[in-house]
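Researcher: We're teaching a course module on how sequence relates to structure. For the next exercise, students receive a sequence and then see the predicted structure as C-alpha cells, so they can try to spot secondary structure elements on their own. Here is the exercise chain.
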Amino acid sequence: MHQDATTGDPRHEDAATSVAGERRHRDVDEETARYWEELYQKRDRYWSGRANPVLVDVVGSLPAGTVLDLGCGEGGDAIWLAGRGWRVTAVDVAQTALDRASAAAATAGVAAGIEFRRHDLTRTFPPGEFDLVSAQFLQSPLEFPRAEVLRSAARAVAPGGRLLVVEHGEVPPWGRHAHPDVRFPTPQETLAELDLDPDRWVTERLDAPRRQATGPDGHVGTLVDHVVLVRRRP
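Model: And here is the predicted structure for the students to work with:
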C-alpha cells in the first residue's frame, strides 16, 4: 500500500483502502468465492496438474500467441501453454487456486509467461483481445450465467483468433449418484447460444469425443467432452 503521491497524508491511504475493499466486494460474489475456496481447501491439490487433452490436441498445431484461460484452477493449462511460448492471462475466482497456480508456474520456470488475475466472471470479465480464449469445463453447480459469459469470451477473441469451449457431456461415472438428473447442453446448443455472426465466424470443430479418465477415488471410467471450436475471421 502506498501513500498519496501528493500529500503523503495517511488519511488518504485509509480512504483508498476503503474504496479498494468496496470495489473488490462488488467484483466478487461472496457465495461463489466461498464455495470454490472451500472446495480447493479440502485437498492440497484438487486437479491433476496436467493440461486438458482437447486443449493439447487443438493448440498443438497453432502458432503461439496470446491466450485467455478462463477458470484456470490450479494452472495446469496455463503452465502447459506458457511452456510452449504462449503469453497467458489466467483467471479464476478462487484465490487459493490462483496461489497454487502461481507457485506451480514458478516451479515449472514459466511464471514470466503467465499473468494470474482474480475474476468472478459473473461480475467482471478480463479486458483485451486474445488469439485464443479457452473455456475448459466452465461449469458450476451454483447459479451461473454460462451463455452470457461464453458470449463475453467470444467478444474477447482477436480477428483471426479462436474460441475453444470444452464442457462435460455427461456426469462422470463416479459422480452420477450426486447429480442424477442434470442435463448438459449439446455442442450444437452451445454454439447456438454463442449467437455468432456466420459472416464473421467459422466453425472448425463441433463434436463429443469420449476418453478414459481416473476419478478421485481411483475409479476408471469413460468421460464425454462436448467441444466447440470457432475461429473469428481476420
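Model: If you want an answer key for the exercise: The chain is about 30% helix and 25% strand. Strands lie at 66-70, 87-92, 114-118, 130-136, 157-168, 201-207, 210-214, 220-232.
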